[in-house]
Write a structure and sequence with these properties.
With 161 residues, the chain is of the alpha+beta class. The chain contains five helices and five strands, in the order E-E-E-H-H-E-H-H-E-H. Helix 2 packs across helix 4.
Length: 161
């Protein structure tokens, strides 16, 4: 029987709800900050403890690279965009147009793949911005999300927009 877990990790101005099973992290989404964040007294799986440890590390060191087992599905185009996202170093950005040129695609299609990202923060879609150093959109479909989260993540990584 597969065991599923949900943890909520609070950042300074938002929270990240992370879904995982015994072997993989498979979904994350932004939510408002909550008092129901992970408590050390709760019994957690080894993977959940590692997810929390790595999120703590990212908060303390914005150059930290996540090394977790992920499982996600997407269209071939989305998977290519998500692969490029994972190659963008903290403190760096690419524009939707730059990614589109790499894939012989369109900036709007890249934006759609960014919005469909099943693992924000872990797969850093916040590092893809609009032309002229504007934030652009982020995490479409999530009614809580606002550009303040994208700006916080970029500022945390040393990029002021």
């Amino acid at each position: 029987m597969v065991s599923f877990e949900e943890i909520i990790y609070n950042f300074p101005t938002f929270a990240l709800k992370v879904n995982l099973d015994a072997n993989n992290v498979y979904h994350a989404e932004f939510i408002p900050p909550t008092i129901n964040a992970v408590s050390p007294s709760i019994s957690l799986s080894t993977l959940a403890i590692e997810v929390i440890r790595q999120l703590d590390e990212y908060c303390n060191n914005p150059r930290f690279k996540f090394d977790l087992p992920f499982s996600y599905d997407g269209t071939p185009h989305q998977l290519k965009v998500w692969q490029i996202m994972q190659q963008i170093e903290a403190g760096s950005t690419l524009t939707y147009g730059e990614v589109a040129r790499q894939l012989v695609s369109a900036p709007r299609a890249v934006g759609g793949a960014c919005g469909a990202n099943p693992l924000p923060v872990f797969i850093p879609c916040h590092r893809i911005i609009a032309a002229n150093s504007k934030l652009g959109g982020f995490n479409s479909g999530n009614i809580f999300f606002n550009l303040g989260i994208k700006k916080w993540l970029l500022n945390h990584e040393g990029i002021a927009l």
